[in-house]
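re: ur question from earlier - yeah i can do the single chain one, its not a big deal. heres the input i used so u can compare w yours
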Amino acid sequence: MQVKLYAIRGLGALAASAILGATVGASPATAAVTSITSSSTILDVALNIGSLGPEFPASGSAPPAYDVTNSFASFSTSLGPLSFSTGVLVDQASGDVATEEGQASSNLASLNISAGVAFSLTASALSSESSVDGIPSATGSSTLADLVITVFGSSINIPLDPSPNDVIFDDLGVTVTLNQQIPVIEGSFGQGITTNAIAVDLDVLGVTGSIDIAQSQASISEAAVPEPSTWAMMALGFAGLAFAYRRTRKVATIG
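and the output i got, formated as tokens:
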């Protein structure tokens, strides 16, 4: 009788191992999209003298599906020694769990930023785009037209086709990064990205902080879907545990 009880307990241990192996060891066959978020803004300023933005943002989160656009003819303001002005601007964000796609873009027809002799930036057009899909993957891109940047009266050399995270200037308390792309990991099965057409970090004439221009963000989250064989192994394991439990009780009663 004792040998029979050990055998039943051994069956229970095997069943538990099957459940554990199915839960921990199996990799997902697919991943189901659970949520998509995206947003964009023409300007996001965080300085020790004050902050601006996000200005004219467009944003959304799926489900349900969304498609949001925010546009304006022009924008101008000042913050301490800094002045900002733009032409036509359009911020857009969209996402749909059914298509497993999300996207955001920020577009400026023109831009002028000035801080006297310390810093100036002009462009005829700027834009960034961030997108995600159900692979999952996340990508970003930026366009810059007629960009001119000066620091204390000296012009910075602007590349025609900046690579991601292209730091074109880092001196005199000013750091300028073109096509800045910051990846974000969304859990175990997700991706995200933040793209800035231009990112400026300042530590000059008592002004410190950051200026993000034409910013877009997108992220996708997914949940693992186990292999069919994993479900079968788990079911077999639970059935084995139930059988072992019933037999153990029966043997104990007889003994």
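The first strand starts at residue 30 and ends at 47. not sure if urs matches, ping me
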